[in-house]
Amino acid sequence: MPPLLTPPASSSPLLLxxxxxxxxxxxxxxxxxAAAASVHFLAPxxxxxxxxxxxxxxxxxxxxxxxxxxxxxxxxxxxQGPDEDRPAPGNEFAQFGAGCFWGVELAFQRxxxxxxxxxxxxxxxxxxxxxxxxxxxxxxxNEVVRVQYDTGACKFDDLLDVFWARHDxxxxxxxxxxxxxxxxxxxYYYTPEQEKAAxxxxxxxxxxxxxxxxxxILPAKRFYRAxxxxxxxxxxxxxxxxRQSADKGCNDPIRxxx
Length: 258
Known about the structure:
Elements: H1 13-20, H2 31-36, H3 52-59, H4 69-79, E1 91-98, H5 101-109, E2 114-122, H6 131-135, E3 142-150, H7 156-166, E4 174-175, E5 178-179, E6 185-189, H8 192-208, E7 216-219, E8 224-225, H9 233-236
Parallel strand pairs: 6-7
Antiparallel strand pairs: 1-3, 1-6, 2-3, 2-8, 4-5
Helix pairs in contact: 1-3, 5-7, 7-8
EC number: 1.8.4.11
Region (Disordered): 71-90
GO molecular function, one term: peptide-methionine (S)-S-oxide reductase activity
């Protein structure tokens, strides 16, 4: 597992606190993100682990420094709005959170009938979040994959099968060594039909497991596309430059960090 990175001495947690308006809770462990910091050819900006001071600002009542409560409310209202993007004709969107979005995206890329995938952040309370914002654990965003699929060639049930097979839906805010609210299990629906299928699918899965499924099923919210180097990360080569196939129907094992 890649080592955690130490933030540079010049980083200022107060600047981020000003953007968020209200911080709370401990920062997550960022194991898989540390790998991204070393991919210079994919990541124009170095990604660093937020300093511990960030998670303490809210506990000390200092998280609102530099920002107004009204601005925070406005930011949350925008972030909680519906996804206003539109899929291509004959296609529909679906959003899934199942841990680190690198491997989840590659799994969906391989599904016949999926015409586009993007990784990003959703279900949070900050408008236009950055990777650093999400990693504080204070914005409540989840790492999600937005899947666009041709309804004539792919069914929502097909996507649900991939979703359940890709992760452990019984571990709250955790997938393996990745811990934090951004790694929670979630299905975010765009239509009543998707919601119905998701709930029926969850019931079927629960009968197969001896632990309680904690997957949240909620309406899809505004989707914030993640930084470019995150997009199709494993197909591009990941940390070690080892490209993984996104060919339709490919069943090669997915190595989460490349």
